[in-house]
Amino acid sequence: MTRAPYSSKQYRKALGSVLRSLRRHARMSQEAAAEAADMDRSYLSELENGQHDTVSFKVATLAAIYGTTFAEIAARIEAEAIKRAKH
Questions:
Q1: What is the distance in angstroms between the CA of the first residue and the CA of the last residue of the chain?
Q2: Every domain of the chain and the residues it spans
Q3: pLDDT in tens, 40-84
Q4: Using CA atoms, how far apart are residues 30 and 37, in angstroms rounded to an integer?
């Protein structure tokens, strides 16, 4: 069985770092970003600090098992959602 080439903790820390960087680049506070995303600010803080296990790690693990990447799955999900929205 193929596994993701990183641990859950490493993934959470990387995800948090990316989310924080994107939020700062957008010049948003945690409060504003959380409100826009319809989530509690404390949950966003946990995500940004790598303290919350996310479903995306599970999807990344499945991607490795299926011989693809998280990016490929995300692109396919977006394309499918757009297709469904048109119907």
A1: 38
A2: 8-85
A3: 999 999 999 999 878 898 898 889 889 999 999 999 999 999 999
A4: 10
pLDDT score at 11: 87
- Answer with the residue of higher pLDDT: 85 or 1: 85
Q: Mapping DSSP to helix (H, G, I), strand (E, B) and coil, where does residue 23 land?
A: helix
What CATH fold (topology level) applies to the domain 8-85? 434 Repressor (Amino-terminal Domain) (1.10.260)
Determine which helix (DSSP H) or strand (DSSP E) holds 57, and give its type and residue range.
helix 55-66
Which residues have C-beta within 8 Å of that of residue 24, sequence separation ≥ 6?
Answer: none
Q: Which two tokens stand for residue 27?
A: 């010049």
Return the number of other C-beta atoms located less than 10 Å from residue 58's C-beta: 13
